[in-house]
Queue: 4 jobs
Job 1
Amino acid sequence: MDDFAGGEQVVESLLKELAETWHRTIPVSAFMQISPLEYSDKWLTIGAPLPPNINLHQTMFAGSIYTLATLTGWGMLWLQQRIAGVDGDIVLADGHIRYLAPITEAPLARCCWPDTELGRLSMGRRVKVSLEVELWCEDKLCATFEGLYVSQPIA
């Protein structure tokens, strides 16, 4: 069961809106075919097929891995703002990635929400959130990303 009021239909609607937001405002996300797959128990799962993200080694291009990880964290904060009923302009302030193994199949990026309070946005104050994203391929952890996201209140 989801951890907020609204249930499965609301989650599906929010995930669809997230994909549309990415594809409209961050064009590379549409080319990469990045897609939110699931949100459950404070975990967000994002996917992307390998073919549009492949490199000369027939594995996922490092830039695509970084972009997928970055957007997964961004998407988690965006989703949490929607759930909390607050608005903010989200940016990545700092990010670090470790490439652990080649990605040879469509990866899954996973991020867990760390119970950060977002109410400051409704008081006109910015929020900083550190998020960790893991990229998995065939049950193998292939990359880890740590991102510091900042959300500014929308004037």
Job 2
Amino acid sequence: MKTRVITISREFGSGGRLIAQRVATRLGWKIYDRNLIEKIAEKSGLAKEFIEEKGESAAAGQHLAYSVPAGFGSFLTGQSVFDKLYVMQYNIIKEIADEAPCVIVGRCADYILRDRTDCFRVFVHADIDYRIKQVSDTYKELYNVEAKDMRKFLEGLDKKRKLYYRYNTDRVWDDVRNYELCLKSSSMSLDECATVIISCIES
């Protein structure tokens, strides 16, 4: 079956989001990244900032630490807000995958769409020094992280994403067996990464 959906999971700072944008532009497909956050916020009533921060990563035990207060939207009292957020993401990703050919960035989309034969799953990773440079150049002020603390910051993000992925999928986030293709973006340009992905789905 012809590929209609590409999911791109990525290490923070590896350029996975930029690769996804290049792939979507060259294919003429829709891309769901930050606009997916807006969809989830609209349906859930949760703040976009909360969804962006908590929709892909988790600290140990946080799913058990937060429960939904009484009268909070359509959520049931006592249920974890993180569990409800995942269910909301799950349903929306299923919906958009049915609508039109698209590229979906992160948010366990590779797992959520695991049974689709028209889905091509990609994992983008990079050497830590490459990631440190990319994040320092692009996100240093946004995250207010000193250069000397960047390695620890990235390692902490990796740990949180692994915990989140494990919690919701019972899988290992960076296990190559979960993906059709794994790319090391520190060994090639972002354009070359996009070309490889497109070549794979067109071959």
Job 3
Amino acid sequence: MSLERFINQAISPWMSADGPDSDIVMSSRIRLARNFNEYTFPTVFTIEEANGVISSMEEMTRQNPLKELGQYEFLKINELQPLQKRVLMEKHLISPRLMEQAINGACILSENEEISIMVNEEDHIRIQCLYPGLQLTEALTNANAVDDWIEENVNYAFDEQYGYLTSCPTNVGTGLRASVMMHLPGLVLTQQINRIIPAINQLGLVVRGIYGEGSEALGNIFQISNQITLGKSESEIVEDLKGVVKQLISQERSARDALARTLNIELEDRVFRSLGVLENSRILESKEAAKCLSDVRLGIDMGLITNIPKTILNELMILTQPGFLQQYAGGPLRPNERDIRRAALIREKIKLDTMNS
């Protein structure tokens, strides 16, 4: 296994698998924030402390491997090229914050890319588990197995009253962030999303874009996650989120049914116009590409398009990001050059999918 495999393989192995409600829920993620008791938090620690955290994790993975992790890659962020870091971020294997870490950051990646352990991000340890579809409980089970393995070798910063101590007070307690990535074109097209988001926020959840905090909801893809980490157990947080997600799934399906009943020809026109744009454009900006890919995926899910696999949205939303485009080009590209290459890549991908269907 090598870094090149993580970089060159656009779609993670777990993304190719089907999961429950995967027509709407693209992925489930569990992230646990943990810190070493003997070191100060990464926001204020010294270089020596940062290196101590990395050394401890390297030694632990080498001497006491975890079976859930399987084969893995230990990557030091300061040894990666800027494009390599960006590609890993675009695949959601590292965070934007860790990507920008100039020194003393690391990441442990499992071969199937379900597990990512970020080292010296905002906290000493960020355990991330990703699953296709709505599988929060399964992701939590896997994350807890990784957490137990680390805790056998590390003294965590833990308080009997407050729970796990973290750099940011909003993570204190369980240190758990549970999130789902959802494709919600029906709620967007019927303009219901504008009233739903404030209601979700009132339930102690937050709605963000595809790359988390501060990012835009490109391609009608929204990330729903918990805000509260203190005062509830991990299982309670997960069950609360699952309850809201199941309601959103029901509302999205109802919205799609309404579109099919009342605007069927208009919906077909939108879907096939977007497909035509993807099949024929010579220049495509990222926002337009994301919008058209969302329309095509909706058309696939509703049975309007039958010769293109539904994984097209997952794969091309990653493949057409700036880092991947430049990785395939072998070097930096100007914005207009990226738009030209994005259009060419999408045309070729759809052509191949159609031929293989």
Job 4
Amino acid sequence: MARILKEIEVNGKKLTALFDTGSTRSYIRERVAPSNRIVLKRPLRVGMGGKRREIKEVCIVEGEIEGLGFYFESCIIEDFGMVNGKELDIIIGATTMEEWEIRLDPKNESLDLSGLRRREFTEFKN
């Protein structure tokens, strides 16, 4: 399966994001994370790229993809390394994609942003 990398804008900077349904949470590299950080009383431990990582801070990231705004909670991580020859800044996890109805099209290595374009959500039904 192809890895879907897209450029998103955060705080006026163009960042490389991996859209990863195998990751529940979203992550952002520490040096590009916004300053609205929350220090966790008890760090989270996650396995990522064959390594155990400790998450000590989270933040809310407001981003834009193809001119469409969205926001998400993100765990701050020191570094990811390279993916497909590009330095990775953000991992957009399944929870964020589900919330904003972002769907992957692995065959065409693209994103279906029709849910994000619609910007209309049903919270509950009676």
